[in-house]
Design brief:
By secondary structure, this protein is mainly α. The chain contains 11 helices and 6 strands. The strands form 2 sheets. A 3-stranded antiparallel β-sheet has the order 1-4-5, covered by helices on one side. The protein has a 3-stranded mixed β-sheet with strand order 2-6-3. The chain starts with a helix and ends with a strand. About 0% of the residues have low confidence.
């Protein structure tokens, strides 16, 4: 029985070595597997050698049992071999467990295969998750694509409708242009008939009869006067405030004074022209004196028809005059007046210059009318029909005028009011 047990043990050891050899062949002879195979062989040989040594020791013959015979000896021997076999298995298992759990040793081929299997499973699981996410994204993109296609169809339909509407609008526009051209032709024809039907008076008064073909006429000047207040005057006021002039009363009075000065200068210039021409008609040789027009102060005795024709020419050229001499004259008078010395340094500001230019051009157009238009700042009592209050004033308490913010415009002196004056009253 002992010999059969040893043969079985040897057969198991050989089978184990062959299994390791097969693993070694599958792993392409890597050093780790070769090391494990050699170690396993040496361990098995050491166990076999230990078994041989124990079998060579002299054994004490067992005492024959009285009634058991040779069968009792065989059973005792079998029990010993079983115990030895169990001890060898335990030693082999303990040795294999130590080899696996020792930190300094490399993992066996089975562990490598298992770890690679787990790694492949994890990668497979990760790839499956990514695939599911990709499929979900594809479905979402398909939904978005379907929505965009629907939007595109609706947009295309709206575009087609808009194109049709645009074509219709263009046709209506062309029709309106044709109608407008026809109306303009009829209007021009009526203007010509009206102009020819009005017989000129001996002394035409443009307050009652305006030539609608003339740009420089009182109604247009009244519109420009309102624009001057809402645009250039406002820009000049903001420029003064930005420059540090915080006294609103002084600022508004200064701008009003500039307008009145240019009006006075324009009126005096027209008077000088009439007086100078009158003197030249009396004595044409005076034109040779370079300073004649500057010092001519004689009262004009020109015929009314001559003055009327002269003003017609002046009105025709009113928009193209060079206003710089008028602006310079106005600034010169301001510098000479100590009341406005605080504003002397800002007279050349861009907004102030533009305001001065517009004042000069507009007041010149006022004075060259057949009956000169009139700017007034002489009222003392507040009149709601003639004046409008400055924003900071209380209308219920307004009685006396403190100062003018904006002059009142009349079609002539003591004539009809065209634009209300703006005042500060208390």
């Amino acid at each position: 029985m002992a010999t059969s047990s040893e043969k079985d043990l040897q057969s198991d050891a050989k089978n184990f070595c062959e299994s390791l050899a097969n693993v070694f062949m599958m792993k392409k002879r890597d050093p780790q597997t070769q090391h494990l195979l050699q170690k396993s062989k040496s361990l098995i040989e050491a166990l076999l050698q230990d078994k041989r040594t124990k079998s060579e020791r002299p054994s004490i013959p067992p005492k024959p049992s009285r009634g058991g015979g040779s069968m009792g000896q065989l059973w005792v021997k079998l029990d010993e071999m079983k115990r030895e076999n169990d001890e060898l298995k335990k030693q082999l298992q303990t040795k294999s467990h130590d080899d696996k759990t020792s930190p300094g040793k490399s993992p066996g081929p089975g562990d490598v295969i298992v770890s690679e299997l787990h790694k492949s499973k994890n990668e497979n699981t990760s790839l499956k998750t990514q695939l599911e996410k990709a499929l979900t994204n594809v479905k979402e993109l398909e939904k978005v694509n379907a929505t965009l296609q629907d939007e595109f169809k609706r947009t295309k339909i709206a575009h087609d409708v808009t194109q049709k509407s645009l074509e219709k609008v263009k046709q209506d526009h062309r029709s309106l242009e044709s109608s407008l051209s026809t109306v303009q032709t009829e209007n021009d024809s009526l203007k010509m008939r009206l102009t020819h039907s009005v017989k000129p008076m001996k002394r035409a008064d443009n307050r009652y009869v305006e030539n609608i073909n003339e740009k420089c006429r009182p109604s247009n000047i009244a519109v420009l006067y309102n624009n001057l207040e809402s645009q250039e005057w406002m820009d000049a006021k903001e420029a003064l405030e930005d420059a540090g002039f915080e006294d609103e009363e002084a600022v508004t009075q200064f701008l009003c004074e500039m307008l009145m000065l240019t009006y006075t200068i324009s009126s005096e210039l027209l008077t000088d022209i009439e007086n100078g021409l009158s003197g030249l008609l009396k004595d044409p040789c005076k034109l040779l004196e370079s300073s004649y027009l500057n010092c001519s102060k004689e009262k004009s005795i020109l015929p009314e028809e001559f003055v009327q024709g002269m003003k017609d020419i002046l009105r025709q050229n009113a928009e193209g005059i060079d206003t710089e001499p008028l602006v310079n004259k106005c600034q010169e008078l301001i510098r000479q007046d100590s009341t406005w010395e605080q504003f002397e340094g800002i007279l050349n500001h861009k907004s102030i210059n533009r305001y001065s230019d517009r004042c000069a051009r507009l007041t010149w157009q006022m004075v060259v009318q057949q009956t000169p238009m009139y700017l007034s700042t002489i009222d003392e009592c507040f009149d709601d029909d003639v004046h409008k209050l400055w924003w900071s004033c209380d209308k219920s308490k307004a009685k006396m005028i403190k100062y003018f913010v904006w002059p009142a415009l009349y079609d002539s002196k003591n004539g009809n009011l065209l634009v209300k004056g703006c005042v500060n009253a208390c």
